[in-house]
Design a protein that fits this description.
Fumarylacetoacetase (chains A, B), magnesium (chains A, B), hydrolase (chains A, B), 6-stranded mixed beta sheet, 423 residues, homodimer, 8-stranded mixed beta sheet, alpha+beta, fumarylacetoacetase (chains A, B)
């Protein structure tokens, strides 16, 4: 077992029950406190630990970071580029410093004052610069629901779906961190036989997804097998793949979604390492027909991560509208990465690979309004008496995710965004 | 008229007839000479002009470049970020220094020795770091040909095609500069009722395209109108969108091409500025039905650029297999950029926007093997007696492009790549 994952570890920092950031998590992010320049931080309880300041106090001398200024950047990319042994060593060292039986940092009043900042007092920034972004389509329940609504209910899954993890390239520039407002996009839509029109989307939707971030680059022509994939993955975030359904319907043939998706995606601010998620591995669904050898894997590659979506109307009350789980995925991330590289496509550090909408079997586990309201035919009833077919201006959509075992909860921090009216 | 475009200008450097790099061109690129670090250069005749060295000799004092080390980088992005007035001023200054009636640089032997390097002696690198890459589908002849082959010959164009410039996001990481070999990709394909198999593509193809590169960023929510688009475009390159047709057919529904495209794209090394291409503006085809207001433009937005594709078998003779022209485009780049931003999608510096395959009406002007051989049913006959349905291992594909008027030829440099066998 990875030492920092020991469920018996306790920190000298008080961790509230149900807190997503116990000593067993220690996710990485980029934060800004007051007028100080952005830097690398780790979430612990109600605090951010300033890793750059910590390094200045000499606490990382035994960690193999040749140049500590990689911790004094506005993205994690340079830190990630140091490689998996360094991410792991850094997390282990932070764990050691925060352990309740270790006084070396705890008892240094000046260091504690400089290095621990309340999370409520910092601004979280995009954790990585994203050179490439792929969105997969790997939930069989989601793909089936969409196929039933838009194509043939009797043959909802397209012929390729069970043979390869369908995916497409998305827009990297418009991925924003939790807390960034989303402006309702304008776009072309077409209703029935009318001529197409241009204006604000009438069918703004979210998609509940989880994304992994690569931490190791490859050269053109190189491949990564499913069983090697973990060496290339730094960590994970929650991902809201905002979508405009009416625009998507009109534009997406034959080359796929474009403006219906690329106006915004929202991610959670903390990158939870694969190391921290290791205790939550579970078996995935059986894949039948058997997949081709380049997609075969060994061991448990799915992760048991509870997911939920909450909707809060302007000035109203927050309501949970979806509860799903990342373990439902038909195609796991190891297969996704193997497929992505199977043709020699090269990976870069900070690439983001999103799962596709994660829906379960149950109607309350559907990961989009499209599915929850079945194309708007079954509107959701909200506590304030209003109903929703899609997302309204002023609505705030929040995604939460956590893995839990032995009373320890490993979470991501909220992935939240408010919708502003179209310009 | 832009001063540097004057057809009566002559340089003290000898320019061969038909040379693509006369004093009226002056495209920007990144080059590496011997053991020296990469830097910004401008092509002139048979030479590269080292702009960083030129700045060290003091020749850019009147150009508004606050920090000359932007010329001493391995991409053009930092230089481009200085803005259009600076690109223009730099090109005008280089033009002035190379003019046959100006001795200030010509007569400085040491400067000439340091700053002018034979193009045959340098290695050209990727000119830009590409944060986002979009591929459009804007040739009506190409879209019609593909629709006839793969869908319904009587309704070859899909209903959205004449209402919006269809496009999709591609992979930025695998865009490489001319001269980089392309490895035949492995991938999943499916023939008839057989189970899918994994192996080298049997239908490797090129796509003849031209791409523009953005030089000005926008914020999320901002839009760019067709008439403003030129202020956001730095320049253009030739673009080979390598494609594996058998993989594409199997994978592309419903989310578009993915592994069939992202194993490699090849670009020409020199970025030809919009300024240099200004004299070659022509009217585009009439758009009927009329487009929505956000896609309407004024003036001539098409460019008359001759394009050709040459095929050279291993050890064999180079043959021209296609002659096309960028002026055939139904949707122009101003409309493409307006569409891309119409939903508020933000632009970044170095983004690449490719045209889609540029085919003309004539069968010899088709910009892909798919069309030239009509899905392989009419193989091309090569001078060595062999025939091609698609591209073979060992084949070298070269794209060339130039605009020509008043005896002045503005070219891009070869966009060339050799195909290596699958790994």
């Amino acid at each position: 077992m990875i030492k920092a994952n020991d469920p018996n570890l306790h920190s000298w920092i008080t961790i509230a029950p149900d807190c997503e950031f116990p000593i067993q998590n220690l996710p990485f992010g980029i934060f800004k406190a007051g007028f100080k320049d952005p830097r690398v931080g780790v979430a612990i309880g109600e605090y951010v630990l300033d890793l750059y300041a910590l390094s200045q106090f000499g606490y990382f001398e035994e960690v193999n970071i040749p140049d500590h200024t990689v911790l004094f950047r506005d993205t994690l990319n340079a830190f990630i580029a140091l490689g998996k042994p360094v991410w792991r060593q850094t997390r282990e060292r932070v764990s050691e410093l925060l352990r309740n039986d270790n006084g070396e940092f705890r008892d240094n009043e000046e260091a504690v004052r400089e290095c621990l900042i309340k999370r409520s007092e910092v601004e979280m920034l995009m954790p990585v610069r994203v050179p490439n972004y792929t969105d997969f389509y790997s939930s069989i329940e989601h793909a089936t629901n969409v196929g039933m609504m838009f194509r043939d209910p009797a043959n909802a899954l397209l012929p390729n779906w069970k043979h390869l993890p369908v995916g497409y390239h998305g827009r990297a520039s418009s991925i924003t961190v939790s807390g960034t407002d989303v402006i309702r996009p304008n776009g072309q839509t077409k209703v029935g036989d009318n001529a197409p029109t241009f204006g604000p989307t009438k069918e703004l939707d979210f998609e509940l997804e989880v994304a992994f971030i690569t931490g190791r680059e490859t050269q053109l022509g190189s491949t990564v097998t499913p069983d090697e994939a973990e060496d290339y993955i730094f960590g994970m975030v929650l991902f809201n793949d905002w979508s405009a359904r009416d625009m998507q319907r009109w534009e997406y043939v034959p080359l796929g979604p474009f403006l219906a998706k690329n106006f915004a995606s929202t991610i959670s601010p903390w990158v939870v390492t694969l190391d921290a998620l290791e205790p939550f591995r579970v078996a995935g669904p059986e894949q039948e027909p058997a997949v081709l050898p380049y997609l075969q894997y060994s061991g448990n590659k799915n992760l048991d991560i509870n997911l939920e979506v909450l909707l809060k109307p302007e000035g109203g009350q927050e309501t949970t509208i979806c509860r799903s789980n990342y373990k439902y995925m038909y195609w796991n991330m190891n297969q996704q990465l193997a497929h992505q590289t199977s043709n020699g496509c090269n990976l870069q550090i900070g690439d983001m690979y999103a799962s596709g909408t994660i829906s379960g079997k149950d109607e309350t586990s559907y990961g989009s309004m499209l599915e929850l309201t079945w194309k708007g035919t079954k509107p959701l009833q909200l506590p304030d008496g209003s109903e929703r077919k899609f997302i309204n201006d002023g609505d705030t959509v929040t995604m939460r995710g956590y893995a839990e075992k032995n009373g320890i909860r490993i979470g991501f921090g909220d992935c939240t965004a408010k919708v502003l009216p179209a310009l």
